Amino acid sequence: MAATPQSRILGTGHYLPDVIRSNFDLEKMVDTTDAWIVERTGIRERRIAPEGMVTSDMATAAAKRALEAAELQASDLDMILVGTVTPDMPMPATAVYVQQKLGAGHCPAMDLSAACAGFIFGLSIADQFVKTGAMKNVLVVGVELLSRVVNWEDRGTCVLFGDGAGAVILGPAGGATARGRARGVLSTRIHTDGALARSLMIPGGGSETPTNADVVEKRLHKVHMRGQDIFKVAVKNLYSASKDALEETGVSASEVDWVCPHQANLRIIDNVVSRLGVPEEKVLLNIEKVGNTSSASIPILLDDNVRSGKIKAGDHVLMCALGAGVSWGGALVTI
Ligand code: COA
After folding, report:
1. Active-site pick, 14, 23, 107, 116
2. Is the CB of 231 under 6 A from ligand 1?
3. Would you call 116 a catalytic residue per the annotation?
């Protein structure tokens, strides 16, 4: 029997830029092929934010849609959490700009740096504040403008990532049930293993290696990744995070209606889901169309499927994500 949830997703929203960069476009930029990318990752195209658009623009667009879905105003927000590793600028937080662009009140607004796990980290933190009654409506955004920090000469990374934003409003669970199930966040668990810190990073531009001409020349201000290290730990930790979420809540794999996993690599997702024993028709995917949008991937996928009516009120949705840090987590939510 699942525990009674104290917080609930009141509304979801997402934003994707219109510009599509396909694998065939990439064939003209680096030594790669559509066949290689599809076979190794499942990605066929990704979205690229146009010049002049910044991270907070995408976050604000997604947030507005989530507020609308929740039937709330920006002034109803008690806190804004933005998961991103591609902020508008190092200081102040991107969440500050989101607050300003939404016209929200003076609620606390901060960024979370947990890379691809940023949304699950944000959801978990928001859940704690709502649970205690300290906050009522918390906006959680996952947003990335990775095309600006990817090295477009490195075929090992540039084929993977895309731009986009997803958002949810978390509020008190109170009373709402569907299909006999209490709607809300049943479990969130988050973890970090700093031993793998240097497997995926942007090494330049911080206090260790401040930006200078040499840093730019060596592309140290761009994404660097040891792909196989991340692949192996993702398969292991996404499985354990998902299993923990089920064990903690007493919800069995067969009771899960949808798995909404971070979209990093189709092979990673297939491996995790088959070990969990969830049939593949219950796995939500959009990696083919959007690539890896890091912290934005889960809320984009969630919103898409809520709006299409595939995910229905009362459905158990299992989420899991892992990214740079390495940081990872799992969540089980009844929509
Ligand atoms: N096109 C063609 N060849 C490529 C390529 C590309 N885009 N990228 C790498 N290669 C080459 C490599 O240079 C290597 O060539 P070599 O054998 O001549 O040295 C070969 O393909 C195999 O590379 P490898 O890195 O072993 O491939 P892989 O099967 O591990 O796949 C990733 C690479 C990046 C797709 C995979 O490791 C991965 O998805 N890792 C997880 C990454 C991730 O999810 N990161 C985000 C965290 S959320």
Report:
1. 116
2. yes
3. yes
C-alpha to C-alpha distance for 116 and 275, rounded to whole angstroms: 22
Domain end residue (candidates: 174, 208, 239): 174
pLDDT digits (tens, 9 = 90+) for 109-167: 999 999 999 999 999 999 999 999 999 999 999 999 999 999 999 999 999 999 999 99
**Contacts of residue 230, Cβ cutoff 8 Å, sequence gap at least 6:** 196, 199, 200, 264, 322, 326
In the structure encoding, which two tokens stand for residue 60, read together? 């604000």
> Which atom from ligand 1 is nearest to the alpha carbon of 40?
35
What is the domain range of residue 161?
7-174
We report the CATH number of the domain holding residue 106 as 3.40.47.10
- Whether residues 59 and 189 fall in one domain: no
Question: Ligand 1: which residue has its CA nearest to atom 32?
Answer: 227
Residues 194 and 152 in one domain: no
Are 62 and 156 found together in one domain? yes
Which run of H or of E encompasses 110?
strand 109-112
Q: Is 262 a catalytic residue?
A: yes
